[in-house]
Amino acid sequence: MPRSVNSVASRARRKKLMKQAKGFFGRRKNVWTVAKNAVHKAMEYAYRGRKEKKRNFRSLWIMRINAGAREYGMSYSQFMGALKKSNIELNRKVLADLAMNHPEAFKAIVDQVK
């Protein structure tokens, strides 16, 4: 009895991966062995990038809060410490948004903390 290899599934698997490699440069988009490695590496970068994005946004929020707090004579660490002492539970994302887009609301928080 001849060996069964299920070429339908194999073809579908290759086709799926080649579709993911669409838009890559050179042989990375159309040569199976090169595309396979390129897609695998791209997936690793994407996974790592999703973690990095969270770090980048947190640091952006910290910079914005620091800039907003310094307008009223406080550093970021002083502001955050005072915020914790006065039991105001606003996260950095909200505080950064207030500092950027609603300076009067941010000033009210700084006045309440001082």
TrEMBL record:
GO MF annotation terms: rRNA binding; structural constituent of ribosome
GO annotation, biological process: ribosomal large subunit assembly; translation
Keywords: Ribonucleoprotein, Ribosomal protein, RNA-binding, rRNA-binding
Any GO CC annotation of this UniProt entry: ribosome
Domain of life: Bacteria
Pfam families: Ribosomal_L20 (PF00453)
NCBIfam families linked: rplT_bact
Family: Belongs to the bacterial ribosomal protein bL20 family.
Its biological purpose: Binds directly to 23S ribosomal RNA and is necessary for the in vitro assembly process of the 50S ribosomal subunit. It is not involved in the protein synthesizing functions of that subunit.
Designated name of the protein: Large ribosomal subunit protein bL20
Organism ancestry: Bacteria, Pseudomonadati, Bacteroidota, Flavobacteriia, Flavobacteriales
